[in-house]
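question for whoever is on the cluster today: can someone run the full assembly for these? two chains, 916 residues total. i dont have access anymore since they changed the login thing
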Amino acid sequence: MTRHENSANFSRRALLKAGGALVVSVGARAAIEPAHAADSATAATTKPPLTPDQLSSYIAVDADGTVSAYFGKMDMGQGLSVAIRQIVAEELDVPFDRTKIYIGDTDTSVNQGGASGSTGVQDGGKQMRMAAAEARRVLVDMAAEKLGVPANQLAVKDGVVSAAGDASKKTSYAELIGGKFFNVHLDWNGKYGNPLYAPGKAKPKDPKDYTIIGKPMPRDDIAGKVFAQTDFAMDIKVPGMVHGRMIRPAIAGAVPVKIDESSIKDIASAKVVWDKGFLGVVADKEWDAIKAARTLKVEWSNASPPFPEQTTLYDHIRKAPARKREVGKQTGNVDDAFKTAAHVIEAEYEWPFQSHARMGPGCALVEIKDGHVTCWTGTQKAHFVQTGLANILQVQQEDVRVIWTTGPGSYGRSDADDCAADAAVLAKAVGKPVRLQYMRDQGTAWDPKAPASIHQVRAAIDASGNVIAYDFLSKGFSRVDVNTNGSQPKDTLAGQMTGVALKSGDGFGFPADSYGFANKRAAWETVAPLLDRASPLRSAHMRDPVGPQIHFASESFIDEVAAALNMDPVAFRLRYVRDPRDIAVIKAAAEKAGWQPRPTPRKKQSGDKVSGRGIAYAQRGPTRVAVIAEVEVDRPSGRIWARKFTVAHDCGQIINPNGLHHAIENNVVQATSRALWEEVKFDNATVTSVDWHTYPILDMPEAPDQVDIVMIDHPEIAPSGAGEAASRPVPAAIANAVFDATGVRIRRAPLSPANVKSSLS
Amino acid sequence: MTKIFTLNVNGIDRKVETDPDTPLLYVLRDDLGLNNPHFGCGLGQCGACTVHIDGKPAHSCRRPVAAVGDKKVVTLAGLGTPEHPHPLQTAYVEEQVPQCAYCINGWIMSAAALLRDNKKPTDAQIRTALRHVKCRCGTHMAILRAVKRAAAMMG
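^ ran it for u. tokens below:
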């Protein structure tokens, strides 16, 4: 039997390693269970410290044998918690319904990165798989000691460990460790967030032995929501709580210079909180807080309107100096190859700022009591918000607890983290718990935006019609103008409004495909933000960050080349795509859709309504997706109906086909909304998309008629992300279908009725 | 100036003291502890706050409490329970409709009114009836399936 370190030893080492920043209970020596001397190294009655290299930080067996998983990522509604329970149940050989999961509470889970980049299963699941496998190994070892049977002669079924040849020799997980804690050290890689990895000594199961992974499982959180029994983050209340509302300037960058508090003297209990650019109100009743925010007389500084005319946005990007340039992997010599071209095809594409526009604007509740801070929030990244609140309130991180609570959707770095920081500032100022919710205009106009960009692409064709070189450049606002989480005050409005300088980061991305052009280059350039502080156009991650914009360009362009060469778009892709899994998704989508080869555009269509089809494909990390869109275009109105989609999706091993199906379908619909409708409008002063009329999204009449999904399962390949991948090819698939229908190439998103109508005329 | 109002909510008379101009949404949520209608826009554009007032879907974010009078208010919690679910609630669970579920008051309460008045709606009628309700997660396909399933259950 392997010796496991005890928690007291570990505590000291963890402190040394982490410089005391971890939440550890020093001196909380594990109480050894005297009845089972053999278990003494592996079971403890006191919980070991909540650190990434403790098995107990991920897995516990309750007194009744129920297995609890503690998970440092969050389920934003795609059923991740079910998938993780399937993985844990599978590796531990316990029934699925004997598992529970606790997610996103900084008091019960370690920082596994939160919801981030579709890594819930890919990274978070990988760790939970290793932890569960290790828990099983330890439990079997404990059973071997107890039963006097070698571990390799024991089998586990439904949490019962029994001897292979003697069924009378058996014990259960509950008997072995129920109600106590694993006291087992894992081999932590020292990293937090998505890359956190801490395996034990166990090997996970061979996929051929799976009985739970790969089975369709329903979510168990839906009934509570449908019967109105589940509290969302905005539903939490604590005694003594007051309501907060924020006030933003009408000209972005302006700050309050004078406040007339007498203007709200008639509103019961209303109070102003003002610190430099930070301006909010609180009141005992929510409606009073709203009225106070609307009524308060504020004199603002004389700021110059910071933004260009929206009609010049893409010119601005084109002309702005590149703040940073990055060139991706290059093949061959692109510049030389273009000199030998018989023919060059070039195009430029444009993508607007887009808003997360969550169904509910940001909301957070912060309570500061006896030196301890508690925050309930729908953030994607509870552990980073914990750091963020510690920073903005200038308290120790261990004095902050962030409890993720389900919220109004989440598709990246939304206004949730800003709201938590604002609520903390208000709560500290008024000395009471504050529940802050933004108003609709703040949720749409003032959330971090998906960056606007342009994309310049060219291809060199030789005399025989072969693509001999390909050159792709994205230029746009950074995907990390503010960072992907609110751990630093510089990245939140509260920090920026109270004077912390913006330190805008640089990042964009490259097309992700396997086109084997002999000479190939992709690059990106970022431009400076339009306003260097507290900007409603600050840019950050939004679902599949920069994926839809880049692949709108790259996959539209591939279609343009295919059309120029008079080739069928599927055949053209298959001619150049090199990766077998990429080839497989393209073929699977084409087969499912009944794709008949022919060049685009479609010929001989007359009348107001024309129809067409288009394909696009992309990789996203190890995941690959091909999408075929079939559209109808109403020429007089410019309205597009994306009537049918066919999706082929390969994310390696499928954990839960049920959850995966919904994830793909919802990605397709949301990406259709972004492709057809979504554009943040602004004037010189500020963002003017403030509600659902000024920021329209797809509505029910425009929902597709049919979404066919082919899920390709590879049990032998580690599962990769599915939370965002299907969003990526959709805009190009639609634009390619519109070209097929009309013969007109639309290179600017969104393909709104106005845009399509003017493009067709 | 606050006043005392008696509201009939989910079949029970409830007394609240509040400003007459307070939207019903905040009274339901903050005074009566009925959290399920959600604030989405405060503008009557999204449906997250939808309740039934005398059987008709209404945006509680736009309806001052003083204008409710003795009309009967029903929230999602009052539409059905796990023991006695509305067919739409059953269909929502069976079809696994929501992603975040923040929007479902609008969809279920609007669809319930549709199915009460039209037992066998066509696809186009469902789409039209639900055209003013927002879902940001893109669950529209599952919503359509659930409404059709509920219609079949109500047969």
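summary bc i know u wont read the tokens: Chain A is about 25% helix and 20% strand. The longest strand of chain A covers residues 609-620.
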